[in-house]
Amino acid sequence: MKRLVLAGLGALAVVTMTGAASAADMPRRQAMPAKAPMYEAPYNWTGFYVGINGGGGFGHSDWSNALGTNGYNLSGAVVGGTIGYNYQMGQAVFGLEGDGDWSNIRGSTSGGACLGTSCETRNSWLATARGRLGYAFGRFMPYVTGGAAFGDIKATAVGLGSQTTTRAGWTGGGGLEAAIAGPWTAKIEYLYVDLGKGSCGVVPCGAATDVSFTTNLVRAGVNYRF
């Protein structure tokens, strides 16, 4: 009996050791590799673009002649198109931009230089050709801008006549542009525009008159980059 018990214990020990050795020889299950994060290339602002813009202007006009000077405020809406090109170097973005807008910026006053009637200043179109300098924070780019401005100054003496002068002046300002989806970007900007002085002669305005035009433009826009 004692021999049977010892033989059984010996057999159990052999089976246990064989199982342990087999388990040790089995290949370890490899851990699943961690999924690498999706790579997103840095946004690059280089390239041509076209777009639309719209907003409003609020400014000032002076009528000046031998009878004195009348100053008054102007306001109205603008809407138009934009074309431009950017070149990015590091985080600096250099650009050229041009735009042309239909404009309804106008205002009027009476007395003094208006010869007893009402004088009105009106701008019906406005264009700019500017340089831009931006600093790219990925998909956001604040910028400063400045250059030439072009537009018309229509001076009207109600009941007498009117005269329109095309003028070249200057503009400066700044804004913020952001990439929103695919090739689309959106921007908001401020520009100060000074077209200098137009003129209105004796026949249409009753006296030789200088008519100035300045305005502050606040516009939003959407651009498509190629």
Protein described:
With 226 residues, the chain is mainly beta. Helix content is 12%, strand content 67%. The chain has one domain (47-65, 79-225): Porin (Beta Barrel). The chain has an eight-stranded antiparallel β-barrel with strand order 1-2-3-4-5-6-7-8. A hairpin with a 2-residue loop joins strand 1 (47-65) and strand 2.
Total E-strand runs: 8
Rg, rounded, reads 37 Å
Q: What's the structural domain tally?
A: 1
User: What name does the CATH topology carry?
Assistant: Porin
Instruction: Extract low-pLDDT stretches.
Output: 1-26
Question: What's the pLDDT, averaged over the residues?
Answer: 88
Task: Tell me roughly what share of residues is in helical segments.
Answer: 10-25%
In the sheet with the most strands, the strands line up as: 1-2-3-4-5-6-7-8
Question: Which labels suit this protein?
Answer:
disordered N terminus; 67% strand; 226 residues; mainly beta; eight-stranded antiparallel beta barrel; single chain; Porin
Give the helices and strands, then pairings:
Layout lengths: L1 H24 L21 E19 L2 E22 L2 E19 L7 E18 L4 E18 L3 E21 L2 E17 L1 H4 L3 E17 L1
Antiparallel strand pairs: 1-2, 1-8, 2-3, 3-4, 4-5, 5-6, 6-7, 7-8
Task: Characterize this entry briefly.
This protein has an eight-stranded antiparallel beta barrel. By secondary structure, it is mainly beta.
